[in-house]
Design the sequence.
């Protein structure tokens, strides 16, 4: 068990409310990071992605920083704009 996992387990006992929903928030955080990384690796700006998606820069920023409730079709358009494909896995 990693140091973080030990810390999380200890803190969860002390403050279970703080950790409720942590795993779900972590997944959306990771999705946002993946979107940003793909955009940066493609050499595109948020504005350029926004134009491709027919939306605004602030929407792209929210996708990268608070990746919640993003439609699959929007993710597919984002992926296409950065030259990538979406792979969906159920686990």
Sequence:
């Amino acid at each position: 068990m990693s140091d973080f996992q030990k810390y999380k387990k200890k803190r969860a006992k002390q403050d279970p409310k703080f950790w409720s929903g942590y795993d779900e928030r972590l997944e959306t955080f990771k999705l946002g990071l993946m979107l940003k990384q793909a955009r940066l690796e493609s050499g595109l700006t948020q504005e350029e992605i926004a134009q491709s998606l027919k939306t605004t820069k602030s929407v792209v920023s929210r996708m990268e920083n608070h990746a919640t409730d993003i439609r699959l079709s929007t993710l597919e358009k984002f992926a296409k704009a950065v030259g990538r494909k979406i792979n969906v896995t159920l686990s």
